[in-house]
Design brief:
It is a single chain. The chain is 33% helix and 17% strand. The longest helix is centred in the last third of the chain and has 19 residues. The chain is α/β, with parallel strands linked by helices. Strand 1, helix 1 and strand 2 form a beta-alpha-beta unit.
Amino acid sequence: MPDRPVYVIAEIGINHNGSLDNCLEMIDAAAAAGCNAAKFQHFKAKYLYPETAGKLDWKDAKGAYSYDIFDAAKRFEMPEAWITRLMRHCAGKKIDFLASVFDARGLRTMVEKGLKRIKIASYSITNLPLLQQCAQTGLPVIISTGGASLGEVEKAVFTVKRYHDKIALLHCSLKYPTPLKDCNLGVIETLKLAFSGIAVGFSDHTAEVSDAAVQAVYLGASIIEKHITLDRKMAGPDHFFALEPDEIEKMVKDVRSAETAHKRKNFTIDKLLYGTTAKVTFPHERYLRDFAFMSLFARRDIKKGKAIKPSHIAVLRPGKKAHGLAPEYMSLFEDHRVTAKRDIPSGEPLTWADILR
């Protein structure tokens, strides 16, 4: 258990629904609840998905839904004009401002605005070029690890450690909401053992208020992250499993009580929540891993026989398209002359077959 209190992050993310007032109200709620930070997501759709990412179709008890993935991402963008106001509002409420970044341009913008701590989403953990750029800022980096293997987490950690060791890892599950039986909180112990000296926390995607968060603290988590919403009935994909203001206040109180219980060694580990210690991609995470772990895409039409330059390549989430090369292979195109072996249309994944005979 760390000497410092557990650091609690209220994940506002895309739950602003295009309203600055909603953001300010959620910051107020997070601060009143005793959270240490309010976190946002800074992305542009064109740097997140190809326009060809396809449509997402699903059903629930209320009906059937379908939306264009790229257009939806565009609707969830947070305007850059809000950033300074949000940072100042957080400072006024004595709560830290955090933000996930998804591309080099977004990283530069946030650092220029005064970001003090960088968050990397699980879907970006294999984007080693972005992790290197984050590390080069010298700022602390918090990395979510949902859906990743232990080897992928190791690559991410070593990429940052080439520059500094101000790293934290968050265990989480790529399922929204995560059933308690799929939390596998035993992975927290694996991460603490594998990466000694690095803070390990838990990004809680369950619908329950504090069951998983409390157990995570018992297992030594020093950071807890949880989505917040003003109303779970609001439109949007991240509201229905988030906590409303009175619930996040209860969660913080339960986390503080769990800290005391842990110090007194007066707690019991729930076997259902503990699950396994294996850090693997679980079957329930496969869909979102395939959907959103980033890979290389053609930024423009590339003709057969032409050299493929880094400026021709984007690092994007596939959506419904196939995966291309992992982002770590961007260096191939930076360090060598690589020619296209066939025509590669803009918005298509870049594969080995595109560059090898």
